[in-house]
């Protein structure tokens, strides 16, 4: 069995926990500070002292701003893309990963897959025994090679950043709206829904929507635009939405 939970997931800060053994916790992204990370793990019944690794998808602030405070308190092994190694050389316990090359952490295999974004960014195909997890965030677009990589997952964790309608009317500057909607921005609700329809198979049991914007999306909007339709077409899937600033339930597969 492998377990996953969101600790916080929005444009203000993103962080997640993954483990096969609760005494060996892997944090994906460090967009929250240590105190919030500790409180979130405590609320899930997990001990922050058991964090062994922090793996970073990319170096935007909402994914790395808490790394120094987390490292100071827990001294985990920091795992970053090899292209970003120079940026993190001040951390003594540093490892790297490369696109399309397996990285094994605590017996869990990560296959980093590059996705289009305005900063070098990795999604992950995560495998443990016969269980497969797709983790896709901060991607402006998904292409055939991405769908081919994530075809047979049991748990799909996918960004659903914005509603196109809500984005158009929110108070973001126009240049930011253009960036978000671009190939190197973020997946919209509609794009997430299309990706799920493309990736559906009978072993896909759970979908967790992540990285919802507080300003250009809302769980109710996501439900209306996407989940309601998916439930009609794929009723056996369990659809979940990661809270903005608090932990999700632990998902076990």
Describe the protein's architecture and organization.
The protein is α/β, with parallel strands linked by helices. The protein has one domain (3-242): Ribonuclease Z/Hydroxyacylglutathione hydrolase-like (Metallo-beta-lactamase, Chain A), CATH 3.60.15. 27% of the residues lie in helices and 30% in strands. The chain has eight helices and 14 strands. The protein has helices at 34-43, 61-64, 67-74, 144-149, 164-169, 174-181, 189-199, 219-233; strands spanning 3-10, 13-21, 24-28, 51-55, 77-81, 94-97, 103-105, 108-114, 122-128, 131-136, 155-159, 206-210, 238-241, 251-252. Strands 6-5-4-3-2-1-14 form a seven-stranded mixed sheet. It has a seven-stranded mixed sheet with strand order 7-8-9-10-11-12-13, with helices on one face. Helix 1 links the parallel strand 3 and strand 4. It is globular. It starts with a strand and ends with a strand. The model has no long low-confidence stretch (mean pLDDT 96).
